[in-house]
Design brief:
By secondary structure, the protein is an all-alpha fold. The chain is 74% helix and 0% strand. It is built from 18 helices and no strands.
């Protein structure tokens, strides 16, 4: 019989996964220059080729997958907290919803500096978790299937395929993105903060919704809860076999989906079909790749019992909220005109070097901090506010 998910070894594995996912997110953010996109050409052709390879390679490996791993672990964390509250004889539903409201406040503060905040979206969708955990597995499976189909985009894809001249409203987020970009390219700090409140939050969250992430997030939350309920991260032979089979299945399906899912251009000329078809099919491809990553990383932990390079990520993952917010603020300073303004001066390769320097610095800080305190500073504030009397 599996033991509950409370062992130190299991917590370290989850922190390792969370730390690895956050490192990948940092690499992506630096390549995107924290949404202030700029891809300057070098006078050296070899560097331009290297930049293109680095950009495409990192996006292929991590784009949509690191976010998905983080989302699965969010659902897992909810389940652990919910189960622990049950074991103490407490109801956790209202407390968790309050916890999400606190996260919304933290997200709003974060969005003051960086318009690509994901925490607000996590918190809003997270309000569904107490209701989802009460459902039986057959209903959860049905919800996952429906979410995979992306109901609205499936409707648009079918309608535009049958009638290529029909039009739909898409990319509403771009209106706010353009308004935000006009201000972001100026050095005034206060104007940038106001633009983030006025346009940035709408730009970011509309982009999430219009690119299918609302349904994706529900899927990954459910998977995280189910993995927690099954104690799938406990080190034992049964789980080792489970992760092996999952790795092989997801790797096979990933290769097959990349090789055989037809391109939108080959099916229909409508740009609305391309948009919605892409959301459905790319979501499926990224889902399989996410399975490859999380199963591979888990198997590596099982096999080597947390080698030195793996443990490097553990304190980083324990302080993921602090590190996520601080890397955003630092990244905005590095790339935006109100800081060093490097967004139109450095290409992909140099951006990755900067990202790795930030990552290593945050790892060292996390090691230093956690030798003295039990939690990261923002994690501590979040916990204290979660359990405040209301």
């Amino acid at each position: 019989m599996n033991t509950p998910l409370t062992s130190t070894h299991r917590i370290e594995l989850v922190d390792f996964l969370r730390g690895f996912a956050l490192m990948a997110i940092i690499l992506l953010h630096h390549l995107e220059h924290f949404n202030l996109f700029g891809h300057p050409k070098s006078t050296y052709e070899w560097l331009n080729i290297l930049d293109a390879c680095v950009y495409k390679g990192i996006f292929f490996l991590f784009a949509g997958k690191a976010y998905s791993i983080f989302s699965i672990l969010f659902g897992l964390s909810f389940w652990i907290q919910y189960r622990n509250a049950q074991q103490r004889g407490h109801s956790y539903d209202l407390r968790f919803m309050w916890r999400m409201i606190v996260l919304m406040v933290i997200a709003f503060c974060h969005a003051t500096f960086y318009n690509g905040d994901i925490l607000m979206f996590y918190a809003v969708v997270g309000l569904l978790l107490p209701f989802l955990q009460k459902l039986k597995d057959r209903w959860l499976i049905l919800i996952v299937v429906v979410c995979f189909l992306q109901p609205y985009d499936l409707y648009v894809a079918i309608e535009s395929y049958l009638n290529p001249t029909q039009s739909f409203t898409i990319n509403r987020w771009s209106v706010y993105a353009n308004q935000w970009a006009k201000v972001a390219e100026t050095p005034n700090i206060w104007d940038n903060m106001v633009a983030n409140w006025k346009y940035g939050l709408l730009f970011d969250n509309l982009w999430q919704i219009e690119n299918g992430r609302f349904f994706h997030l529900i899927i990954y939350y459910i998977i995280g809860m189910r993995l927690g309920k099954a104690n799938s991260f406990e080190v034992n032979k049964t789980n080792n076999d489970f992760w092996k089979y999952l790795f092989l299945i997801c790797l096979s399906l990933s290769v097959l989906s990349i090789a055989f899912i037809p391109e939108a251009n080959a099916l229909c000329t409508s740009k609305y079909f391309h948009h919605s078809y892409g959301i459905i099919t790319e979501g499926l491809k990224k889902f399989f790749m996410t399975g490859v990553w999380i199963s591979l990383l888990t198997l590596l932990w099982f096999r080597f019992k947390g080698m030195k390079w793996q443990r490097w990520f553990v304190p980083y993952g324990r302080m993921s909220l602090t590190n996520y917010i601080s890397q955003s603020i630092l990244g905005v300073f590095i790339y935006y005109p109100m800081g060093l303004g490097l967004y139109n001066k450095v290409g992909a390769t140099i951006s990755v070097v900067i990202a790795l320097i930030v990552f290593v610095s945050q790892c060292l800080f996390s090691w230093w901090w956690l030798r003295r305190y039990k939690q990261g500073p923002i994690e501590y504030v979040w916990k204290k506010l979660t359990w405040i009397r209301i």
